[in-house]
């Protein structure tokens, strides 16, 4: 690791901030001789004030520097290239610059023996190292300056708590604003690219067409030169796999939540609930391997044993494994909702002579039903967005069928397929991925809004 790398800088600044915390805290205690009543704020706030002034300005400057430096370095490298290379068209010049960048980073390039590229890569590394050195020095100076500046303000009457809470409030506002802006940027990027797609393909044909074949021809005289972009088979496949997954996840998840909340002893609950939620931490690619290597062959062999024709990749196999993956999601949400039902409702039911089973069926579950429905809708959104299990267990065939024994595909799988490899981003084939993404975004957004409103209605009623 280079001596002046961003990682080393971050470690040094955080170490200085930690030192600043103890310096500020000790200085505050020393200023009043250990008598805390004379301090406006607790000693820890004085330490945090010094630490924040030490770390925040330097890290902000380093972040801004790292975002600007690559562009400046590339401009300087291009300016140092021979005139004939600088005169190349932007596309070819970009390829040369990409080779220089890859060679500087130690990656494989096509122009390894070109002396111009090698010299430019060396110049690139020198400029980058110089930039990191300047950034390290500036950030370190800001950290030390902030530490000594904040240390001067550590006096008994200084309102350290107000200042620290104000800084935290500003950071929270900035963080939430960045999150909102990123979300808006994602939506707008999807929207603009989807509008480009709909300028080529009729939206009615896309939303209600029955044939999906996005492969476009190379010549105008070939058949289906514009491709077929009817997304109904994709919606049908997504709905089929999601329905199978929910048929597995909802009953098992709900029954496990009822048992853990109403019947299980505390010792059993303390063991079973973490074990159940381990399923949520397993990577989806592992579920995909399990579906492709175990569940799909078992489903095919079981179907053939009773005379059914089952595809090697089927919606049933993918739906079963996806349902297993979503069980802890449904169980955890339902368990929280059931535990939130007031105990007074249970006590009133028992006082009227109802058994525990009757209380669960006629009091607890009806009272928790809005929250359970909201959790199920969130689980449906999770199932709709799953990709890896479908790729490995359900196949890529865009068939308009509701037969769970056949191979189908989903919206997310097609998005991945359309964007894999070298693609032209102005063709209808590639732009179709953004249209599918926008459609999927709208569907999941509606489901999440319905789920959140349902849960909010439940909370308003019982909290």
Q: List how many beta strands DSSP finds.
A: 2
Strand content: under 5%
- Structural class by SSE content: mainly alpha
Distance between the termini: 54 Å
- What's the rounded overall pLDDT mean? 83
In CATH terms, the superfamily of the largest domain is MetI-like
Topology (SSEs and partners):
Layout: H1 6-31, H2 43-79, H3 83-86, H4 90-104, H5 115-152, H6 160-200, H7 203-208, E1 212-213, E2 228-229, H8 232-263, H9 266-277, H10 284-305, H11 315-339, H12 343-351, H13 356-384, H14 388-393, H15 411-419, H16 428-462
Antiparallel strand pairs: 1-2
What does this structure look like?
With 463 residues, the chain is mostly helical. It has 2 domains: 153 residues, no CATH class; 235 residues, MetI-like fold (Orthogonal Bundle). The chain is built from 16 helices and 2 strands. Helix 8 packs across helix 11 and helix 8 packs antiparallel against helix 13. The mean pLDDT is 83.
Key phrases:
MetI-like fold; 75% helix; two-stranded antiparallel sheet; 463 residues; flat; mainly alpha
In short:
The protein has helices at residues 6-31, 43-79, 83-86, 90-104, 115-152, 160-200, 203-208, 232-263, 266-277, 284-305, 315-339, 343-351, 356-384, 388-393, 411-419, 428-462; strands at 212-213, 228-229. It has 463 residues and is an all-alpha fold.
């Amino acid at each position: 690791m280079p001596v002046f790398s961003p990682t080393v800088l971050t470690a040094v600044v955080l170490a200085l901030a930690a030192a600043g915390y103890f310096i500020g805290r000790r200085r505050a205690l020393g200023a009043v001789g250990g008598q805390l009543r004379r301090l406006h704020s607790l000693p820890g706030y004085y330490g945090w004030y010094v630490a924040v002034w030490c770390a925040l300005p330097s890290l902000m400057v380093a972040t801004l520097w790292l975002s600007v430096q690559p562009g400046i370095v590339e401009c300087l490298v291009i300016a140092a290239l021979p005139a004939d290379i600088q005169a190349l068209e932007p596309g070819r010049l970009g390829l040369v610059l990409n080779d220089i960048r890859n060679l500087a980073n130690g990656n494989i390039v096509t122009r390894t023996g070109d002396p111009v590229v090698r010299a430019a890569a060396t110049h690139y590394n020198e400029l980058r190292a110089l930039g990191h050195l300047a950034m390290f020095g500036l950030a370190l100076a800001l950290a030390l300056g902030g530490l000594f500046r904040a240390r001067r303000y550590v006096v008994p009457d200084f309102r350290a708590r107000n200042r620290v809470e104000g800084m935290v409030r500003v950071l929270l506002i900035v963080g939430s604003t960045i999150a909102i802006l990123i979300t808006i940027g994602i939506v707008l990027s999807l929207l603009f690219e989807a509008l480009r797609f709909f300028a080529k393909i009729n939206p009615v044909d896309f939303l209600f067409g029955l044939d999906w074949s996005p492969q476009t021809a190379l010549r105008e005289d070939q058949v289906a030169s514009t491709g077929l972009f009817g997304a109904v088979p994709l919606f049908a496949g997504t709905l089929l796999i999601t329905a199978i997954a929910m048929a597995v996840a909802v009953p098992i998840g709900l029954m496990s939540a009822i048992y853990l909340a109403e019947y299980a002893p505390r010792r059993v609950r303390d063991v079973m609930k973490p074990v159940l939620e381990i399923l949520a931490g397993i990577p989806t690619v592992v579920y995909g391997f399990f579906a492709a290597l175990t569940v799909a062959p078992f489903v095919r062999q079981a179907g053939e044993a009773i005379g059914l024709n089952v595809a090697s990749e089927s919606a049933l196999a993918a739906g079963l494994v996806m349902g297993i993956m979503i069980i802890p999601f449904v169980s955890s949400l339902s368990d929280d909702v059931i535990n939130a039902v007031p105990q007074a409702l249970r006590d009133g039911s028992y006082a009227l002579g109802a058994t525990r089973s009757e209380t669960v069926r006629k009091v607890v579950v009806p009272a928790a039903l809005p929250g359970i429905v909201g959790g199920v809708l969130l689980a449906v959104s999770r199932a709709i967005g799953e990709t890896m299990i479908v790729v490995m267990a359900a196949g890529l065939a865009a068939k308009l069928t509701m037969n769970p024994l056949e191979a189908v595909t989903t919206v997310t799988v097609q998005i991945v397929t359309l964007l894999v490899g070298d693609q032209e981003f102005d063709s209808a084939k590639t732009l179709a991925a953004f249209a599918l993404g926008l459609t999927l975004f709208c569907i999941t957004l509606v489901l999440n809004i319905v789920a959140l409103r349902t849960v909010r209605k439940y909370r308003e009623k019982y909290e």
